[in-house]
Write a structure and sequence with these properties.
Shape: globular
Oligomer: single chain
Low-confidence stretches: 1-19, 295-299
Order of helices and strands: HEHEHEHEHHEEHEEHEHHEH
Strand content: 5-15%
Distance between the termini: 45 Å
Number of helices: 11
Helix content: 40-55%
Largest sheet: 6 strands, mixed
Radius of gyration: 21 Å
Structural class: alpha/beta
């Protein structure tokens, strides 16, 4: 019997290792850093636990009424500690490291999740957030609905590409007309372009500044603009003013400059991306019947 009990205890240790212990109280006061991650916390039912968010956490609008702890890469320990959080939850984009170390030394649990733009990373994030909320089943349901919605998008793209070729696309991240950064491989922007049915013409890794001459040489069919300060027509005008040669590209002459919300690109794959894909695909493939989607994945 003693041997059997020892085996049971060992199995239990394995099951709970690396997870929230059954007798460990769940964190009640949260600060989140990274727009998409904050949105997932809300989606999974954790908004009431949020006591602060970073400046990229703007959706839903109720998050803007919470105290801000600054930009995710430039957090300040004093402002965070003043909110007395049990946990600070962010991605590897969160920092700077000395601030995170200071928070840990003050007894705050700091957790960094992956912001990689792929479904396995997203699944891991949702599983962990669901565990912290004590509702892993809901996390699995939300992920399954999200994955299904992306499969519908994939099928839509496959069908439309039988009639139209994929457009060449450049996605530019700017700030009030300053020199923009082009989103290359292994970025949320690159994932967004591919899933919407486009060809990302920027082949470098990460985000990189491109000269006006380089942008003109790429001659994209579509330009996606994510401006951190300006929106709509103002963002388009600022980009063209800073990069006048861009006006000669096919995208500009055909009026296919699309401004998107920059917070879609922060903190990994977020819950609003399926709806954004449908809108972007309609620009990529004019004349095609767009795929209908809800703004949030259904349970």
């Amino acid at each position: 019997m003693k041997a059997l009990n020892a085996v049971i205890a060992a199995c239990a240790s394995i099951i709970f290792s690396g997870s929230v212990q059954a007798d460990e109280p769940l964190p009640q006061r949260w600060i989140t850093s990274g727009g998409s991650l904050s949105e997932w916390v809300v989606e999974l039912g954790g908004e009431s636990r949020l006591v602060g968010v970073d400046s990229t956490s703007r959706h839903p609008e109720t998050l803007t009424k919470l105290p801000s702890v600054g930009y995710q890469r430039q957090l300040a320990a004093e402002g965070i500690l003043a909110l007395r959080p049990d946990v600070v939850l962010g991605t590897e984009e969160m920092g700077p490291p000395p601030v995170l170390a200071q928070l840990r030394s003050a007894g705050v649990k700091v957790e960094s999740l992956s912001s990689q733009p792929d479904l396995p990373s997203l699944h891991g994030t949702l599983q962990h957030v669901g565990e912290l909320l004590g509702d892993k089943a809901r996390a699995e349901q939300v992920f399954a609905a999200y994955e299904q919605r992306l499969k519908q998008q994939e099928h839509w793209v496959a069908d439309v590409q039988q009639k139209q070729s994929a457009p060449g696309v450049v996605i530019l991240i700017g700030h009030a007309g300053a020199s923009p950064m082009a989103g290359g491989k292994n970025t949320v922007g690159d994932w967004l372009v591919a899933r919407a049915g486009g060809r990302n013409l920027a082949t470098h890794e990460g985000y990189k500044s491109l000269s006006t001459e380089a942008l003109l040489g790429l001659n994209p069919d579509v330009v996606l603009i994510a401006d951190r300060q300006l929106a709509g027509e103002a963002a388009q005008k600022a980009l063209l003013s800073q990069n006048p040669a861009l006006a000669a590209t096919k995208a500009a002459t055909e009026g296919r400059l699309l401004v998107i919300d920059p917070t879609l690109l922060v903190g990994g794959l977020g819950p609003r991306l399926p709806a954004a894909l449908s809108e972007i695909s309609a620009v990529f493939y004019p004349g095609s019947e767009p795929l209908k989607t809800d703004t949030k994945p259904a349970l």
